[in-house]
């Protein structure tokens, strides 16, 4: 596998691990980007975007739940401008949301996966994820599965409609439009929630994960208990999770704020670059610190494994004490925050290290966190920065 791009000699370990992913760890096509102090120090790509088609500098792909970080950032931009109070009830901005015991739900509960709406009780019609009003109305009229704010459970597919509808109500623009006009275009990012048709030819189709020898607890529960939250999450998605559907033109063009974004490693790292530098022109330093604080943690009511979230972002989680199928988390430093995507893509910033990181690929892994391919690149990045792991776990800055 030929690797292309540039890599600062100080980060040669990242290039070595990237090559190892392609030659030893089953990688098909991928990209990785590391920015430190705002400077691009690693920008690599390699492998195949499709059979017989090399992964190119401008190849893009579906990054699944990495989308949530972009969606959360939109809410934070509105909060910094004084247009959105994250501690206010959702009904201040979305009055119709206050039905069936949801009147006291706070905006922060939507960001921290505490809203109690990780799925719908009844299946939506085919193509529902491409109909924003339908999904927003269904969620507004849904009864929460738990009292909002009392526990957390990953809102894998509903997060984007919940946060996105608040963004739409406050800004007067759709989530994808707001993100494009306020984030992607000002930062010069090739990052879309709602991919233009003229960019379709650049997309590397998703390659589903190989069936795991031992599935995570989430999938075990989903396939053995049809009334469980995992089962409802997988079943009540309007066909979006059917094989190949997420690569359809309808899926790519829709604004799906939980899982629908299209970009590459350069786009993911670029998204987090201003945050790695103290907030840039997006948020204040004070608000950046607020964004990074862990706000919900513990056994996830949906994923059935430990997760940790700040206000819309994943935080470092060490699950290696669990059985192998559930052992994937995200081994970052305590000051880092970002989001992983189904199959292993990941983007995050670490303001203390002035680090922004992005990794994308087309061949998915079977776990629920940052898989060994992405984690190897993260680990090599932190080593290059002089960070250390205590007992092989989380990353700590020199002297911590």
From TrEMBL:
Pfam families xref list: Beta-lactamase
Beta-lactamase-related domain ranges (all copies): 25-366
Q: Where are the transmembrane segments?
A: none
Protein name in the entry: CubicO group peptidase, beta-lactamase class C family
Organism encoding this protein: Nonomuraea solani
């Amino acid at each position: 596998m030929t690797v292309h791009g540039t890599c600062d000699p100080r980060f040669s370990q990242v290039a070595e691990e990237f090559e190892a992913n392609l030659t030893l760890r089953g990688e098909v096509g991928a990209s990785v980007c590391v920015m430190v102090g705002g400077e691009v120090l690693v920008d690599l790509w390699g492998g195949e975007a499709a059979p017989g088609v090399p992964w190119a500098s401008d190849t893009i792909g579906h990054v699944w739940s990495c989308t949530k970080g972009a969606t959360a950032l939109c809410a934070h931009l509105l909060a910094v401008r004084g247009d959105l109070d994250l501690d206010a009830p959702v009904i201040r901005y979305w009055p119709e949301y206050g039905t069936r015991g949801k009147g006291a739900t706070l905006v922060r509960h939507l960001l921290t996966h505490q809203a109690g709406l990780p799925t719908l009780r009844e299946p939506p019609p085919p193509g529902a994820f491409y109909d924003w009003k339908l999904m927003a109305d269904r969620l507004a009229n849904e009864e929460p599965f738990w009292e909002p704010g009392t526990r957390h459970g990953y809102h894998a597919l509903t997060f984007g409609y919940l946060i996105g509808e608040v963004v739409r109500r406050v800004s007067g623009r759709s989530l994808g439009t707001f993100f494009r006009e306020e984030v992607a275009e000002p930062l010069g990012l090739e990052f879309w929630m709602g991919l233009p048709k003229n960019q379709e030819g650049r997309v590397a189709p998703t390659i589903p994960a190989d069936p795991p020898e031992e599935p995570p607890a989430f999938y075990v529960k989903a396939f053995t208990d049809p009334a469980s939250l995992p089962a409802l999450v997988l079943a009540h998605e309007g066909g979006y999770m059917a094989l190949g559907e997420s690569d359809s033109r309808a899926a790519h063009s829709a604004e799906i704020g939980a899982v629908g974004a299209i970009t590459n490693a350069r786009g993911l790292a670029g998204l987090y670059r201003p945050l790695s530098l103290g907030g840039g022109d997006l948020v204040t330093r004070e608000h950046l610190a607020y964004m990074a604080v862990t706000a919900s943690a513990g056994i996830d009511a949906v994923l059935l494994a430990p997760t940790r979230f700040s206000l819309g972002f994943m935080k470092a989680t060490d699950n290696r004490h669990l059985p192998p199928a559930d052992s994937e988390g995200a081994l970052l430093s305590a000051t880092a925050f970002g989001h992983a995507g189904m199959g292993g893509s990941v983007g995050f910033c670490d303001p203390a290290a002035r680090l922004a990181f992005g990794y994308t690929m087309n061949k998915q892994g079977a776990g629920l966190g940052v898989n060994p391919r992405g984690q190897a690149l993260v680990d090599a990045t932190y080593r290059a920065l002089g960070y250390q792991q205590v007992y092989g776990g989380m990353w700590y800055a020199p002297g911590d």
